[in-house]
Specification:
9 helices; alpha/beta; two-stranded antiparallel sheet; single chain; 320 residues; 10 strands
Length: 320
């Protein structure tokens, strides 16, 4: 049996839900090795899948498919990234097309309601980006507002700080001066992380790190986004693999297969390591085939002038 990530390479629930359900009905999915020529085929039969771990910034378009997932007997849990950058026109350039938190908070609650289990949906407050506009005070205020709104709907919040990958540095260079990220000392990051843990505690939300071991304290746990212990808690009849994932040295995840594709997410997040060419991502989204065995075929497509993305049902995304 295998565990599937869907996906930290793109946002399948926001943009590719119809494609994913086609693959569930077919019983298998393919993905391309991002660093080699191999095409991998994975079974989606429930007897072959420990769990599917979803990642998204907007589950609203995916809610219509939950009954189908249940009918096919697939066990899932969900990472939901809500940071608040999209709430203010001054910080929206960090997450150009991510819906306003009022929209995502609503679909967060509806997702939990469907499963009647707060542990099924994990809040992600990441990445934490330090800029002149989004300093530690901004993060404390924004985090407290979101934690208060999410009280009773989740038990965990995963945090991480912006990683300065090469492609991220190229993208953030286009931002105005007040949104240029800076990297504070580890002591300042730890102080903020401890403050966020204290702010979350009254709402029964525990903080977990995502590959940030320096921030682990008595009140902040070392996290595993693809978490064997959580899978065991949610589905005790299963015995998930304990093999370690070698993605990053500090990553606590167990071995899994990610079925997404790079340069396919049109959210337009300036900090995204999975999108090097945002025009290409929009083009691939607009022209993807929901009946294809893989989310995106390998092509040398030259980006065309893209239109604004819609959700997979063709309804314009709700942007405030």
């Amino acid at each position: 049996m295998h565990t599937i990530s869907a996906s930290y390479r793109t946002d399948i629930p926001a943009f590719y839900g119809a494609w994913f359900l086609e693959r569930v009905r077919a019983g298998s999915v393919q993905y391309h090795n991002p660093v080699g020529p191999q095409v991998v085929t994975l079974s989606l039969r429930p007897t072959d899948v420990h769990a599917i771990v979803f990642w998204s910034k907007n589950y609203a378009p995916f809610l219509r498919y939950l009954d189908d997932l249940d009918a096919h007997g697939l066990d899932c849990y969900f990472h939901y990234a809500i940071t608040g950058y999209s709430a203010d026109p001054a910080t929206r350039p960090l997450e150009t097309r991510v819906p306003h938190p009022n929209h995502t908070l609503d679909s967060f609650a509806r997702l939990v309601d469907h499963y009647s289990q707060p542990l099924v949906v994990q809040w992600r407050y990441d990445p934490i980006i330090f800029t002149a506009r989004t300093d530690a005070t901004w993060h404390r205020q924004t985090f407290q507002y979101l934690a208060q709104r999410l009280a009773g709907w989740t038990r965990r919040c995963y945090i991480s700080f912006l990683d300065s990958y090469g492609k991220v540095r190229r993208n953030v260079a286009t931002l105005p001066a007040e949104l240029q990220p800076y990297d504070p000392p580890a002591s300042e990051k730890c102080a903020l992380a401890n403050d966020l843990a204290a702010l979350a505690a009254p709402y029964d939300i525990t903080l977990y790190t995502c590959a940030e071991d320096f921030a682990v304290t008595d009140h902040i746990h070392r996290g595993a986004c693809v978490d064997a212990d959580l899978i065991q808690t949610l589905w005790p009849q299963k015995r998930p693999s304990r093999a370690h994932c070698a993605n990053r040295g500090k990553c606590g995840c167990v071995a899994h297969r990610d079925i997404g594709a790079y340069d396919t997410c049109p959210h337009g997040c300036i900090y995204c390591y999975a999108v090097q060419n945002r025009d290409l991502a929009l083009t691939r989204y607009r022209h993807h085939d929901p009946h294809h065995t893989a989310l995106a075929a390998r092509t040398s497509t030259t980006p065309t002038a893209p239109s604004e993305p819609s959700d997979d049902a063709g309804t314009q995304l709700l942007l405030f």
